[in-house]
Amino acid sequence: MSLPTDPVHWTRGEFLISTDKRYLSPTAINHAFAQDYMYWAKPFPEEILKKVIENSFCFGVYDIRSHRLCNEENGHSQQPVEDLNAADVKQIGFARLVTDRVTFAYLTDLYVLAEYQGRGLGGWLIDCVDEVVRPLPYLRWLMLRTSAAKSQASYETRLGMKVLDTGDIDKGPVMMGRQGTAGGV
């Protein structure tokens, strides 16, 4: 068993989360990466970002209120999500897994635009990540880095993660890494 090969979609009111890469907007992602509150990321040249997306398992968060399929009264999609196209959605969030799709996944680049925060969308995005990763019977590690206490608490609660001891190798495995030239926190 591995990560899904067909796109997975979740809807909540006027919002959509999807693993369908056709909806992703490299321009929107780079615009978000350029914001001050995205201190852990920097924009990429668009061709590089397209390669990053191509080689990752991605989740996009979208506002679908302006779409013709979205009911004006309740914001719910009236037709299958598969009927949407990229022009029908506004990308407002993103997350990606760097993964072999079976044993390992590294969660990175997770964000919801500032003007959409406070609506539970970030937590919902984390829950969607968990929904596709949790059933993997051969998963060895789901990992990430964060430097925000609020994010740490959310990942602990929603994904069951814990801070890995980075201490003495004699006390057990240690996580190791080297920061690349592209920066990040």
Automatic annotation (TrEMBL):
<dbReference type="InterPro" id="IPR016181">
    <property type="entry name" value="Acyl_CoA_acyltransferase"/>
</dbReference>
<dbReference type="GO" id="GO:0016747">
    <property type="term" value="F:acyltransferase activity, transferring groups other than amino-acyl groups"/>
</dbReference>
<dbReference type="InterPro" id="IPR053144">
    <property type="entry name" value="Acetyltransferase_Butenolide"/>
</dbReference>
<dbReference type="InterPro" id="IPR000182">
    <property type="entry name" value="GNAT_dom"/>
</dbReference>
<dbReference type="Pfam" id="PF00583">
    <property type="entry name" value="Acetyltransf_1"/>
</dbReference>
<protein>
    <recommendedName>
        <fullName>N-acetyltransferase domain-containing protein</fullName>
    </recommendedName>
</protein>
<feature type="domain" description="N-acetyltransferase">
    <location>
        <begin position="19"/>
        <end position="181"/>
    </location>
</feature>
